[in-house]
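Give me the fold.
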Amino acid sequence: PLPHSPTHQDLTIQNHKSKLQNRHPLRAMMAKFPAQPISQLVILNLGAGNWQQGFPAIAAQIWIDQSAVPMQVTGHLPALPDFAQRYHQWQARYDLLYRHFARQAPDRSPSLRNPVFEIEAEDITHISQAEFQAESQQLRQQLHQFLMSAGFQRIEQQLRTHLRHDTVVRIIILAEEISILRFPWHLWQLLDDYPQAEIAISLPDYAQPLQIQRQQRDRVHILAIFGNSDGIDLEQDRQCLTQLPQASVTFLVEPSIEQFNQQLWQSEWDILFFAGHSSSRQHPNQSGYLYVNRTDRMTLEQLKYGLRHAIAQGLQLAIFNSCDGIGLARDLAQLHIPQVIVFRESVPDRIAQAFLQNFLLAFAQGLPLYPAVRQAREQLQGLESQFPCATWLPVICQNPAQESPCWSDWITTPESQERLLLPSQTSSVATTIAPLVQSTPATLKKRDSSILGRWLIPLLSGSVITISLWILRSLGSWQSWEWTTYDSLLRLRPTESPDTRLLIVTVTEADIQDPHNAPRQGSLSDRTTARLLAKLQAAQPRVIGLDIYRDFPSQDAQLTQQFQHNDRLFTICKRPTTGNQSQDGILPPPEMAESQIGFSDFVQDQDGVLRRQLIAMSAQPAAGCRAPYAFSTLLTLRYLYDQGITPQFTANHQLQLGAIVLPQISRQAVGYRSTDTRGLQLLLNFRNPSQPQAIAPQVTVAEVLNNQVNPAAIRDRIVLIGVTAPTSSDRWTTPYGRSFAERLPGITLQAHMVSQLLSAVLDQRPLLRTVSPRTELLWTIGWVGLGLAIGWKIQQRGLWAISLGGATLLLMGSGYGGLLLGYWIPLIPPGMGMFSSAIVGRLFQPTLRAQGFRQET
């Protein structure tokens, strides 16, 4: 059966159990937060829809249990023309209610006066709080009815099926229109049932910012800008910032634009904070304005280069404790800042102060960003008797390519790194050895020239360390560390050229949305698929691999003919992963012969990274997908068949291709203790071009159909066809990166797998294999012995540190060299053993000299 990808264990935030005594008044108020599991992520893309035309194409991507690849559900919402007018009228009434005491644009000069709404003569110019609350309730009810429409219920049902009530849930809503993002989507009834869920907004275009490696620091660095404060009290904002634990705050009070810009360039900031007046909705271009002092207002475009530099240096969060900040967040999103917190509308001074204090208290003491914002937002409900709809105002603007942080993520101290030198383990080993030293026979305490007398303590020390490491190794304690080291060495290998025996035909978003690509059930219509296969077949490729699920019969006669009679065409199905084989999995095209169908399944490690390649698994007769060989394996075997190479099996039931015997992963192998390695699995030796996506030449479907591809680029090649559109859920985390932008499409991984097998058989490129447990034990003993020799013989501290550093470089070089030769050599147990034994040997130097042991070299 297919090996299951194990679920991540929930990672929790430690409770703050110690009592905060003799501390700051704010710290004394800090709550004790319960442990929170790692978060789930939902990206809800509303596309280019709006209230007038509706939302015809909604896609929800859901990451389940930290899976590297999300599931995707589609739906739609109907038009609601009167809803836009109702919300516009609500905004006008809100502005009338709050315009006299909010942090909105100051009315100091005629040049700065711009009403937030233009109110017609017949519009209401006065409104009571009761009337406003009644209209707000009607708006909420209309939204509930809107989201109950049949086209959206499939999305909501999937969310309620897969989201967990005890988990932090981050829901990011994407839309092209700013007016759609401005709407208070937290009124969605789903949030009432998921107490740890919070909604953020984002534009549909986003990317991961380029950020340098942060230096170690013991404080969070905050740049606080206090702008024009006419009519508002910013002293409460100052007090909230100065009372933060482990924070260094730089204040600029009513600075010039030049001073603001200089500060962005002069330091590495974690948080940018602004308090004062701001506005954006009254400007037609939707740009945000900050009133930085009593005479100047500015847009963020005027600080574009300084902000871009600050983001590259590590700026993670911007907080605008001012009015109407959606336009400001839009401007920052174009610079790919990770997170921004703003207020949707004009915000009363007291609401801005209360939210800031509640949010910073929760965030600085360990609550993740999303729960901290939701808790602070809901705490505003106590003020809604005076300020209706206060809980509607705060919103997170999130870059979906970035993870949301915790306060502790920004603090890395040298002391925390020094703790990795294992003083507790060293003292534990010394405690274990000490009784043995005291019970040594009296003859060994003298100047005994025997080998036993000179080496008893080193042998005992080395034995204890080695046995301890081997027990931990057998329990799988070092697996995650070994994976991290392996991934790093894999990325350091020399660059390789793309594999020109392959050609990838990518199905892009433009190909999917092409008007000629209709009607379709999947990514490509029957007619488009038939034309594509005909064009490719005419150029005489060696093999064609269609990496697109088609569990439905063809409606095109030409395509049916291709499926039934083209013996060089291969396609995919998905093996069942549960006991219910009749329903699980995805069926193959009904017209295809079973010999031309391969399973598309991949297997991930426990950290969600794909490092292994499935070659074959035992067939399951009762399943809909009965393919015994992987899709990549079938393409390779068909190509090699034309080379006169056929598969054989050795006496040990190992698959042999030509002179190459495929090395199967063992459950005792480094990195895979207690892992299900059934079936034939190999380590995936990724080809290493300048970019992992550049494994082979690539063309699009449109280029093939429009005769823009030279037939010579297709002839005698393995042609793989698959979806690379960003909206596809077929994207996988590899050793080359974990962010969404760095994940590889499934078709690219299939190309890596085909290239690995072809290169091993035809080019003698090594396949990766693990060392045996016996070799690994001897390898660990050798490094433990080297560490003891360094600690035992070298007395000068500086020379001891240099020797240990040189030995570490030698160990890393050995692992790198082994990888180039095709062997994954363990580094963590030998490294830990070498450091521990070197420290133990150094601790025992004075004792041994006092007892008269010889120090012979």
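DSSP finds 25 helices and 29 strands in the chain.
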